[in-house]
Amino acid sequence: MYKIPQMLNCFCVSLLLLPMVATPLRAQESRAFTTEDALNIAQISIEALTPDGRFVAATRWTSRDRKNVDHMRFGDPTYIAPSFADVLVIDASTGNQTPVFDSKVQTRAFDWSPDGKTLAFFYLDGEQYSLYTYDREHNQTRKVDLRTSKNIASNSPLEWRPDGTGILVTLRAEGWAEISRKAYENLTYGPTIVQDSSEPFLAWDAVRNRGQLSIPAIVELPSQEVRELFDHEVSLQNISQSEDGNHISYLSVDPTTTSYTRQDGTDYSVHTLNLADRSTRLLKGESDSRLNITWNDAGNAFAFSEDGDVFVQSIGDDEALNLTSNDTDDDHKAGGDSTQVRYSFVRWRTDGDAILVSSKEGYHLIDASNGDNELVLSLPESDSTAPRQRPVSWSPDGRTLLMTYSARDKWERGLVRYDLESRRTHDLIKDTGLYSNWRFSETGERVFYAFSNGDMPNDLFVADSNFDDTERLTNLNPWMADRKLTRSELVEYLDVDGRTLHGILYYPVDYKPGQRYPLVAEIYEEFFDNGFNHRMNLLANAGFFGFRPSVRLETGFPGEGWLKGVTAGINTLIDRGLVDKEKLGVHGTSYGGYATNLLVTQTDRFAAAINISGKVNIISFLGDSPKITVRNYYAAESGQDRLGATLWEQPQKYLAHTAILNADRINTPLLLMSGEGDWNVPATNQREMYYALRRLDKEVVWVHYMNAGHGAGRTSTVADFHDHWNRILSWYSDHFEGDGDRISEDSGTGTR
């Protein structure tokens, strides 16, 4: 195990604050970071902790382990995409790592037994998952041969019984696979496909719904007997076991019709099942309003938010108790305005006697039995620069909250403890590093997290409850010590409307002050946090600045946001003397590809642009992705596309945000990249732009990967991943070098 001195965080901070100077000799002798390296970066996920937090079940994988997905089978409920990883058990006290298997395998859904001695998980045998257990004390793995002919559902939960005598899973009904596969094939191959508006669902919705059907069951151990809890298929979510093991409660989700708003078309209800006599009781009746419930630790009560109020109900109650129904905004009472404060559920307190909720005022602690409401942490309502603080755990005694912390004007991040009695905040760890994936032992004695200095990949760390003793559990990528890697910087700038935005700048690996370099912007929406980014490292090793600028998108008029924000951010860097203004590139993937295509219809500033899996025609896009059915309607009307109206209400907005209609204004050389198996943005949409630019005698190249999905070559085979990036880097290099020397020492006004 790697002991981390208390100076570690100060050291990481110092590295990030070092001035940008010429790279030391050792770094100059290092090897370039390549596409092969990008495939080999190891990552780790905590899958389960023992109750005392001593042992961690984790999976370790690389991007290479998740290639060769059959994207053409998206929408097939019987298909399980490849996702291989090493399975490790890590002793947090000693740092010892024990592999559960000799090679990488495909697994999912891990859970430790209540005594922390046995790990249960699903292991992919062929095309079906099997239940496996790992005996930690004897280092033995074995398959649990279920005494049933039914298969485990590919999306099954896995949870030990409270007394450790069995495991809760879900099964597929007899014949489920054959029926589901045939339904998929009928829509894929025909020979005749008929869709009828008298049917309640679009055909692909009906196929997708089959994937949610299963039969909850308990696997008894050690007998391996299977006790089915229902005699038919059901669609359940949020399954919870009571602490005494007598009841299993759940949210029933019953789709009724295809929904275009995501706010209807499904009936939700909450039930509890008595395991002794298999009787069920309705706790909350059917409603077509979307319902998200959260069970307390004891599994005998749930909470939910609805129409701005928060409710709780125990499995013994006939109806839910509204804990916030009489609360009004004090600021409006004096004027006779009884504006109701809107609350959202956040989390149960550990003992289940109180809940934490949020409002525009801050965080409130509410007694779960009588609704007594106490504002325990005020948050500035209108201060957009105030740090973000998000509760992630309670202390076991319920006296303090553990909250993640992130400043919004600089890189200052970490974890703080908030004392509910003293109303004081204590910093546990806070610096310029990047922290994520917080996990807490039930005893509160150990805190696990992923840490990066902002430029290197994450490693796994553990600390005591006060962060007096911090230890590094993994060193996943030691080979990267001799690679040339970029360094990141947070950039603040004003967009055209005078709003403060932030972007992340990634320096060329051999950066020399006083020289101007080409810049490639990767665009999407808003960016703030850094963290290791293989894409930016590939650009930096090509001799370019990488830049991820933020934009603000206005509902009804999102298309102008990228012109206002992206160009303003780049101007800031040009003014600093960093960037050659004649050597600018821009690209994006998915929504970022769409943004790129819109951007180059509005400006000729870029020497080259790339649209990766991004739509170009928002009108035809409404219906050209049949496997995701109505999602594109929702996205345009009230989702990410932000048009704020239907096509028939505001057709002019759809026309204004369709790049193909302004293809004649594009003078930027454009590379289009797509995947044959892209279920999200089918290649037919990008083909429209290729044909249009050919017709208009513009410079355009279309690269289509037959084995790829959404994301083009990077989602395909290993060979396609290399090809994808070689084409991107060559596209920029060719067009930058066509404007003069690669690096400019003057004011940046290159020649054409």
Sum up the structure in keywords.
disordered C terminus, globular, eight-stranded mixed β-sheet, 41 strands, 752 residues, five-stranded antiparallel β-sheet
CA(first)-CA(last) distance: 56 Å
CATH homologous superfamily annotation of the domain at 484-737: Alpha/Beta hydrolase fold, catalytic domain
Low-confidence stretches: 1-28, 330-337, 739-752
Report the CATH architecture of the domain at 484-737.
Answer: 3-Layer(aba) Sandwich
Q: Biggest sheet, open or closed, and with what strands and sense?
A: 8 strands, mixed
CATH class term of the domain at 484-737: Alpha Beta
Q: In DSSP terms, counting alpha (H) and pi (I) runs of 4 or more, how many helices?
A: 13
Mean pLDDT: 92
- In helices, the fraction of residues equals 10-25%
Describe this structure as you would to a colleague:
This protein has an eight-stranded mixed sheet, with helices on both faces. Strands 1-33-32-31-30 form a five-stranded antiparallel sheet, with no helix packed on it. The chain has a domain at 484-737: Rossmann fold (3-Layer(aba) Sandwich). It contains 13 helices and 41 strands. It has 752 residues and is α+β, with helices and mostly antiparallel strands. The protein is globular, with a radius of gyration of 28 Å. The protein is 17% helix and 33% strand.
Write the layout of secondary structure elements.
Blueprint: E1 2-3, H1 8-17, H2 25-28, H3 35-40, E2 43-49, E3 55-61, E4 86-91, E5 97-99, E6 107-112, E7 118-125, E8 128-135, E9 140-144, E10 159-160, E11 166-171, H4 176-189, H5 203-210, E12 215-220, E13 226-228, E14 236-241, E15 247-255, E16 266-274, E17 279-287, E18 293-295, E19 301-306, E20 309-314, E21 321-322, H6 330-333, E22 344-348, E23 354-359, E24 362-367, E25 373-378, E26 388-394, E27 400-406, E28 413-419, E29 424-431, E30 434-440, E31 446-452, E32 459-464, E33 470-472, E34 488-494, E35 500-506, E36 517-522, H7 534-541, E37 545-549, H8 559-575, E38 579-589, H9 591-599, E39 608-612, H10 631-638, H11 651-656, E40 670-675, H12 683-695, E41 700-705, H13 718-737
Parallel strand pairs: 36-37, 36-38, 38-39, 39-40, 40-41
Antiparallel strand pairs: 1-33, 2-3, 3-4, 4-5, 6-7, 7-8, 8-9, 10-11, 11-12, 12-13, 14-15, 15-16, 16-17, 18-19, 19-20, 20-21, 22-23, 23-24, 24-25, 26-27, 27-28, 28-29, 30-31, 31-32, 32-33, 34-35, 35-37
